[in-house]
Write a structure and sequence with these properties.
single chain; 12-stranded mixed β-sheet; Dipeptide-binding Protein, domain 1; Solute binding transport lipoprotein; D-Maltodextrin-Binding Protein, domain 2; alpha+beta; 3 domains; 13 helices; Dipeptide-binding Protein, domain 3
Length: 526
């Protein structure tokens, strides 16, 4: 029968999904079947080269590449993976040293040594791909390989978050013989050192993962193979689950499908698990645009957006309203936009515009991606258009593109206002602020914010105890509220729908809600 399972344990307020003993979906009892686990998701990779990816491609990378540090099940701080040990070797948090495990190899049997680690990090900065993760390495000065097993990272400034950066799939270690130092690797081949090898890959269709016999790390595989199927929409994915063509859905369940799964009849053999999420959705205003560049226009929009209606009407309460770029559950979270603007109010919005000398309806074009953040995205933007135009203060035009060309557009500064989602690189308030500010950021729209970039962030990064930097992040969030260049909309929840025979989901999500496929298993007896 269908059982909506809410036996959840949240660890350190991150989006780990856990079930206590007796919750049947993810029980470890029974005998394992070695047939591939088939996982469905709507989040397909945009690239297979880590140097080109600062997006959902990481969900595949986590399983086929290896990083110096990572997150064993239940851990909320980075632990050694390809490394035997890592630590700051000075009190200023500016020199970070890692010692590699002995005898590491890539999936093709070639050696993985300190030079390979240096090569992997250096090429990110040298290639500096427009959609790549070079922005995560802003504090890095240089990488030094000492012998075969020692790597030393020399930082420009103190950065207590650097271990978290090394634990992201962006810092995946690649084979120097297969990945050029100054260019991205072409084709669909991968040479990594993760728990799995990529046996075959069809873009936007499927990735077939098989055991990597050369893997040496903390992961204990509970299956021999995983097939990831990529879907264009939630409905098709759920239909495949109900037909037993896939075993589990991970990312991309639409609100209507979640509600439907919650109310299925008793003859269904599926279960749904709900957990807290730390992904966010937000709007970006381009300061170079004639209208979006005006603070009064941005603040008027902030005064009108009705987040509770969006959460309830569009997402059927499968998300929560968000009033800060740092979500609830992350240390330092505030509710700045609600504190400053309160409930939606057309009169207050009109006063903001009038005071700035704007008396005619403001024309704005809102852009969104048609195939990235779920089928509700188009409906969300229609609702935003309705809310803003109902005030009589705005004339909104909606436009969309598929993700690949959408990214190119906002990186070139083509969009006046555009929607983005953010799945964190690591669970720290720093990662909800630093990527979006500075001359070069993840959004393609320069945002100097010197008080944040030159004072608050550097000050917070000198503190290893992240619980001691709430004040810095509260101040940073208030600056973002005052500027209104980034407008948070909602904070997600995590939902996994699976057949009853799948185990391991309680361990399968790391602190950034990336699925560790090796934790999944199939049970044939109960």
């Amino acid at each position: 029968m269908f059982n909506r399972n809410r036996c959840l344990r949240q660890v350190a307020a991150i989006a780990s999904i856990s079930l206590v003993a007796g919750c049947g979906l993810f029980s470890d009892s029974g005998e394992a079947d070695d047939s591939p686990i088939v996982v469905g998701t709507t989040s397909a990779p945009t690239t297979l080269d880590p140097a080109a990816s600062w997006d959902g491609s990481w969900e595949l990378f986590r399983n086929i590449y290896q990083t110096l540090l990572s997150y064993p099940s239940g851990s909320t701080t980075p632990q050694p993976d390809a490394a035997k040990s890592c630590e700051f070797s000075d009190t200023a948090n500016r020199t970070y040293r890692c010692e590699l495990r002995k005898g590491l190899k890539f999936s093709d049997g070639s050696p993985l040594d300190a030079k390979a680690v240096k090569h992997s990090i250096d090429r990110i900065l040298k290639i500096k791909a427009p959609s790549g993760p070079a922005g995560l390495l802003g504090s890095l000065n240089r990488v030094e390989a000492r012998g075969d097993r020692e790597v030393v990272f020399h930082l420009k400034t103190s950065d207590a978050t650097f271990p978290f950066v090394l634990a992201t799939p962006a810092m995946s270690i690649v084979d120097p013989g297969s990945y050029p130092a100054d260019a991205l690797r072409e084709g669909n081949e991968v040479t990594g050192s993760g728990p799995y090898k990529l046996q075959s890959y069809e873009e936007n269709q499927r990735a077939e993962l098989v055991t990597n016999d050369h893997y040496d790390g903390y992961a204990e595989r509970r299956n021999d193979a995983v097939t990831i199927r990529y879907f264009q929409d939630s409905g098709t994915m759920v239909e495949a689950l109900e037909k037993q063509e896939i075993d589990l859905t991970y990312r991309g369940l639409a609100a209507d499908d979640i509600v439907d799964l919650q109310t299925k009849d008793a003859d269904q053999t599926l279960q749904l698990v709900e957990g807290a999420g730390i992904d966010i959705s937000y709007l970006v205003f381009n300061p170079r645009d004639q209208w979006a560049g005006k603070a009064a226009v941005r603040k008027a929009v902030a005064q009108l957006v009705d987040r509770p209606t969006i959460a309830h009407k569009i997402y059927k309460d499968t998300v929560d309203p968000l009033y800060s770029m740092v979500p609830n559950g992350i240390n330092g979270h505030t509710t700045g936009f609600f504190d400053d603007y309160g409930d939606p109010d057309a009169g207050k919005a009109r006063a903001i515009l009038t005071e700035a000398g704007i008396t005619e309806p403001v024309p704005l074009t809102f852009w969104y991606t048609s195939d990235r953040y779920g089928s509700e995205t188009a409906v969300l933007f229609k609702e935003l258009k309705r809310q803003l135009e109902a005030s009589g203060l705005f004339e909104i035009t909606l436009k969309s593109r598929p993700w690949k060309t959408y990214v190119e557009g906002y990186q070139k500064g083509e969009y006046p206002v555009f929607g983005r989602g953010w799945f964190p690189d690591f669970p720290d308030a720093d990662n909800y602020i630093a990527p979006f500010v500075g001359k070069e950021n993840a959004l393609g729209t320069p945002y100097p914010a010197p008080e944040i970039t030159q004072d608050l962030l550097p000050r917070s990064r000198r503190e290893s105890d992240r619980a001691q930097v709430e004040r810095e992040f509260e101040e940073a969030q208030q600056i973002l509220v005052n500027d209104a260049r980034l407008l948070p909309l909602w904070q997600g929840k995590q939902f996994i729908a699976a057949s009853e025979e799948i185990s391991g989901g309680e361990r399968a999500l790391d602190p950034s809600t990336i699925m560790m496929m090796w934790e999944l298993g199939r049970k044939t007896s109960w």
